[in-house]
Amino acid sequence: MQTALAIFRALADPTRLRMLLLVRAMELSVGELAAVLRQSQPRVSRHVRILADAGLLRRYKEGAWVFVRLGDAALTAPVCTALDALMIGDGSFAAADRARLTEVRAERVAAANAYFAAHADQWDDIRSLHIAEDVVESAMQAALGDRPVGRLLDIGTGTGRIIELFGTRAASAIGIDRSPDMLRLARGKLEAAGLADCEVRQADMYALPRPDGSADTVVLHQVLHYAQTPALAVAEAARVLSPGGRLLIVDFAPHAREELRTRHAHARLGFEDAQVCDWMAAAGLAPRVVEHLRGGATEALTVTLWLGERPGATATKPRNQDRKDAA
Fold first, then answer.
1. 53-70 average pLDDT score
2. What is the pLDDT of residues 21-46, one digit of tens each?
């Protein structure tokens, strides 16, 4: 009874009803909520706290920003169904909120486009060093094959490209990155791709905010060469794998492009197959080298795909069955 009372108290305010419907549509920062609702951030923060205390919303801090999304589906789904039945979403406020929500989506996409336009030379500089990215992505899809992706965790998600690539095949998808700027870009891209139900969160690759066995597929795509202690990053990725779960690592083979340390903050100049396979084996995975993708130019970098599988039965779930696991 206490849970029901807390929910009804939290919803006994028109602003909080509007907030719940807005966050149901897409994850929003407190600042974005304030802009849509035309209210001050302190006031919006207070309403968010009340809804979060009732379990209807969850809050995530990313640098100076706080993002808000729906709470556990087991609690929020019946509440939203009841609101739909009561036609709470109708009315002038709802129409205005939806219009301003469309503006938020457009602003996110525009910000992502502007960032890529401003940094296009840097991305092109990196990509020119190895085989075309679409070839790498095709190899990744082939490596994972037709098996269900299940609960996907993309470590070092950056702009969210791996979630774009595999999100529609996943039961749930979470992207992890340390950079709030990259996460905001990822949100814009995922919104544009129609993947707003996928999550991105600020976190460290050495301390993933996920319980043991909570992911069926983990991807480290062009991330490991930034790691000061890659063995620990591999071990932490393996920790969250379920029985039968798979870790796909995509990174450079050993090379001598020393300028990448200073120009692009690479901590490691590629990896030997034996190194990566040893790290996977030490973490309890059965490793194998999937493929070496060599660029056409003489000095082009080689991209390698490694796949490690945790022994045990595969236990993937159909899409959207268990959003609680993504909490």
1. 83
2. 898 888 788 988 998 888 999 999 99
Closest-CA residue to 21 (of 1, 46, 51, 41): 51
Regarding whether 310 and 163 lie in a shared domain, the answer is yes
Its domain, for residue 285, covers 122-326
**pLDDT tens digits, one per residue of 184-193:** 888 888 888 8
For the chain, the three-class secondary structure string (H helix, E strand, C coil) is CHHHHHHHHHCCCHHHHHHHHHHHHCCEEHHHHHHHHCCCHHHHHHHHHHHHHCCCEEEEEECCEEEEEECCHHHHHHHHHHHHHCCCCCCHHHHHHHHHHHHHHHHHHHHHHHHHHHCHHHHHHHHCCECCHHHHHHHHHHHHCCCCCEEEEEECCCCCHHHHHHHHHEEEEEEEECCHHHHHHHHHHHHHCCCCCCEEEECECCECCCCCCCEEEEEEECCHHHCCCHHHHHHHHHHCEEEEEEEEEEEECCCCCCHHHHHHCCCCCCCCHHHHHHHHHHCCCEEEEEEEEECCCCCCEEEEEEEEECCCCCCCCCCCCCHHHHC
Same domain, 52 and 160: no
The pTM of this model reads 0.71
- Is the pLDDT at 60 greater than 90? The verdict is no
Task: Report residue 143 as tokens.
Answer: 């490596």
Residue 322: its pLDDT value, please? Answer: 42
189 and 91, same structural domain?
A: no
> What's the structural domain count of the chain?
2
37: tokens are 């609702």
Q: Is there a contact between 128 and 138 (Cβ–Cβ < 8 Å)?
A: no
Whether residue 164 is found in the same domain as residue 100:
no
Is the same domain home to 56 and 186? no
